[in-house]
Design brief:
Distance between the termini: 27 Å
Structural class: alpha/beta
CATH topology: Rossmann fold
CATH superfamily: Vaccinia Virus protein VP39
Oligomer: single chain
Number of domains: 1
Strand content: 5-15%
CATH architecture: 3-Layer(aba) Sandwich
Largest sheet: 8 strands, mixed
Length: about 280
C-alpha cells in the first residue's frame, strides 16, 4: 500500500543482490505498520512505535484493517463468481495469507494475478505471492503507483494478463496515500483506460466522516511520521467510480460490503466508526 520511493522491476534485482539496504529502518512505513495491525511480524520497532501511537487515538485500528482486508477477500470472490479471471492488484502490501490470488483461485483455479508495490519489504517477500495454482499464474512488479504507465508496460503484465479480456483493477487501502485528489483520479483513469468493457474497479479508502475526532488524529500521526495520509469523505471517494456501474450495495463502510459472504472476517454489527473505511466495486461499461 506504499507510495513513493524508487521504481524497480522485480526482475532488475540480481539473485545475489541484497534488498536490505533499500529498507529504511529509521522511519515508520505504512505497509509495515499495516502488517503490525494485522498481527504480522514483518515490521520494525519504529513501525510498532508509530502504530501504538495510532492505537492510543483510534483503538479499533486493528478492527479497521481487518475489515479492509476481508473486504478484499469478499470483493475478489464476488468478482470471480461473476466470471472475472484476471487481477491487477496495486499496493499489494506485505503478503498475508490468504492473498488475493489464493482467494481468486479458490473460486477459479485458472485466475491470473499481477501484484505491484514499491516497498522493498514486499519485494523481499514477493515469493509468497508466486504460489499460484498450476492452472493459474501470478507475477510481481516492484513499481510506483504514481507512474501507472510504467507498471502497465512491464513484461510481467504483458506475460501474465490478457488486456483484451476483462481485468479487475484492485487498489485496496491505497489512494488515501495519494495526497492530491486530481493525481489520484489520474492514476485510476490511466490504469483503467487500457482495460476492456466488463473490467472491474475494487477500491477501499480511509475516511474521517465516521469518526471525525479519532480518524483526524490518525491522519496527524501518519503525516508527522513522514507518510502523507489524506482521509476523504464519501462524496470524494465516489468520484473514483464516475462512469462505472457500481455493484450493490454501492459505497458502504468496508465491513458492510456483502457481509454475508462469510469469510470469518469482521462482524457486520461492528460500528461504522470502528472501521472508518469506505469500499466499493464497479464494472466498466
Amino acid at each position: 500500500m506504499a507510495v513513493g520511493g524508487m521504481w524497480q522491476s522485480a526482475g532488475e534485482l540480481g539473485p545475489d543482490e541484497p534488498i536490505s539496504p533499500l529498507i529504511r529502518q529509521d522511519i515508520p512505513h505504512s505497509a509495515r505498520m499495516y502488517d503490525y495491525f494485522l498481527g504480522g511480524k514483518d515490521n520494525y520497532a519504529v513501525d510498532r512505535e508509530a502504530a501504538e501511537r495510532v492505537l492510543t487515538v483510534f483503538p479499533t485500528m486493528r478492527t479497521a484493517v481487518w475489515a479492509n482486508r476481508t473486504f478484499m477477500h469478499r470483493a475478489t470472490r464476488v468478482l470471480a463468481r461473476r466470471g472475472l479471471r484476471q487481477w491487477l492488484d496495486i499496493g499489494t502490501g506485505i503478503p498475508t495469507s490468504p492473498n488475493l490470488h489464493e482467494v481468486a483461485q479458490s473460486v477459479e483455479p485458472a485466475a491470473r494475478v499481477v501484484y505491484a508495490d514499491n516497498d522493498p519489504v514486499v519485494l523481499a517477500h514477493s515469493r509468497a505471492l508466486m504460489t499460484s495454482a498450476p492452472e493459474g499464474r501470478t507475477a510481481y512488479v516492484h513499481g510506483d503507483v504514481r507512474d501507472p504507465e510504467a507498471i502497465l508496460a512491464t513484461p510481467q503484465v504483458a506475460a501474465t494478463l490478457d488486456l483484451g479480456q476483462p481485468v479487475v483493477l484492485s487498489m485496496v487501502a491505497l489512494l488515501h496515500f495519494v495526497p492530491h485528489l486530481d493525481e489520484a483520479h489520474r492514476i485510476v483513469r490511466r490504469l483503467l483506460e487500457p482495460l476492456p468493457s466488463g473490467s472491474a474497479l475494487a477500491l477501499s479508502h480511509a475516511t474521517a466522516e465516521l469518526d471525525p475526532a479519532g480518524a483526524t488524529k490518525v491522519e496527524e500521526i501518519y503525516n508527522q511520521a513522514g507518510t502523507t495520509l489524506r482521509l476523504r469523505p464519501k462524496a470524494e471517494f465516489a468520484t473514483f467510480f464516475d462512469g462505472l456501474d457500481l455493484l450493490e450495495p454501492g459505497i458502504v463502510p468496508a465491513h458492510r460490503w456483502h457481509p454475508k459472504d462469510g469469510d470469518g472476517g469482521i462482524d457486520a454489527e461492528v460500528a461504522d466508526a470502528q472501521v472508518s473505511f469506505y469500499a466499493g466495486v464497479a464494472i466498466k461499461p
